[in-house]
Design brief:
8-stranded antiparallel β-sheet; 3-stranded antiparallel β-sheet; 8 helices; globular
């Protein structure tokens, strides 16, 4: 009898297990919302989970959109292994959905108010591409619009948010190190249909001369990436395949030779020149040591892209932070500092080492000074009669 009961119990458990699987399978197939294949996915801002799938075509990782929708204020606090790999491999990275649709709309509204200030690069000395090349387009010049940090709190807010955007700070730290700084004055690039792009340029080994360019150096040692100068394209309109705009030669930040004839103009070896497909609100980070440029613009919509450049704490390429008036002060134009939080202000510091009281942005967005010991600081004061050596 005990044996019979055991057999009965085992049979019962087996039937129960099978019935549960049948019910679950039926439910899974009956309600499409539960099917993994039917869930609507949207590329998010490159935060990597166990479900992320790297794409060599776009140099991004795709994750569940619900991460951004459920936790709108939650962002990764460090650069992921996938992001390190893709940037080191290709020299650029597409970061999805950094700006929300409302923020993109605010940028457009601000730009519309200042369109009359845009300057066309129509003088022959300002043209960026060879006529007849894919970069030249149909001929209309590119439009450059400055002043985006000087339009007042409402119109400049989103543009200034890029300085220490919580989605971008971990990437800036991973590519430039703590204490990273703004190096160039940011501005908006615009192209109407047929508008001129930009001949390929840059390279740690200059793509036209073949000379080593330490100003654009790229290194990676013991897992630490450093770019001497980092480009940051904030895309304000969709750049679909074939539309033109920003283009890049993946991996060229590690090239040891200049480009073969015709390639800088897109007339030769064009299969190695890629125009990443991006959406409004995406950001493209690229080492200035990666050969890049822009294809002629073919879309009916006006191209709009805000371009920033950042550098490590101790490095500088541009000099707009250094005023040319009688004060000779190391500061940006005064309106740059309006309505900034502490983290954003930290990014406007001039170049100097972290250990010399440089404000560093923490993971939570707060700022702290990195200092030497009080005794060493006092010693410098005694020796040099100044606060810093």
């Amino acid at each position: 009898m005990p044996f019979y009961r055991g057999k009965t119990l085992s049979l019962f458990m087996l039937l129960l297990h099978v019935s549960r699987r049948t019910v679950f399978t039926t439910a899974f197939s009956t309600f499409p919302t539960l099917s993994r294949s039917s869930i609507s996915f949207r590329s998010t801002s490159l935060s990597v989970s166990t479900l992320s799938v790297p794409s060599s075509a776009t140099n991004q990782t795709n994750t569940f959109s619900t991460m951004a929708e459920i936790q709108a204020n939650h962002f990764p606090t460090e650069m992921s292994q996938a992001e390190r790999y893709l940037f080191d491999l290709n020299g650029f990275l597409v970061v999805r959905n950094v700006l929300t649709p409302d923020e993109v709309a605010a940028c457009h509204a601000a730009i519309d108010q200042h369109m009359n200030d845009a300057v066309a690069r129509e003088d022959p000395a300002l043209r960026n591409a060879v006529q007849g090349s894919p970069m030249y387009g149909a001929g209309p010049p590119r439009l450059d619009l400055g002043g985006i940090f000087e339009w007042g709190e409402e119109q400049s807010k989103v543009f200034k948010s890029i300085l220490a955007h919580p989605r971008l700070v971990p990437l800036f730290h991973g590519l430039l190190g703590k204490g990273y700084r703004l190096d160039h004055i940011p501005f908006v690039l615009m192209n109407n249909k047929g508008g001129e792009g930009f001949q390929l340029h840059g390279g740690t080994v200059d793509c036209t001369s073949g000379e080593y360019n330490h100003h654009l150096a790229y290194t990676c040692h013991n897992g630490n990436i450093r770019s001497a100068l980092l480009g940051c394209n904030v895309m304000l309109v969709d750049h679909n395949p074939g539309d033109g705009g920003f283009c890049v030669v993946p991996g060229s930040h590690k090239s040891n030779f200049k480009m073969p004839p015709g390639m800088v103009d897109g007339l030769a070896h064009s299969e190695y020149i890629i125009q990443p497909a991006t959406k409004a609100g995406d950001v493209v980070l690229f080492s200035e040591g990666t050969v890049h440029g822009a294809m002629g613009w073919t879309s009916d919509r006006q191209r709009r892209c805000a371009l920033y450049r950042f550098a490590p704490a101790t490095m500088a390429y541009g000099r707009s932070y250094f005023q040319e008036d009688a004060s000779r002060s190391t500061s940006w134009p005064s309106k740059f500092y309006d309505d900034l939080n502490d983290a954003q202000k930290a990014v406007l510091e001039p170049p100097y080492a972290n250990r010399l009281d440089r404000p560093n942005i923490n993971e939570d967005g707060s700022v702290e000074l990195t200092q030497r010991s009080e005794r060493k600081r006092r010693h410098d004061k005694e020796v040099f009669k100044t606060k810093y050596f």
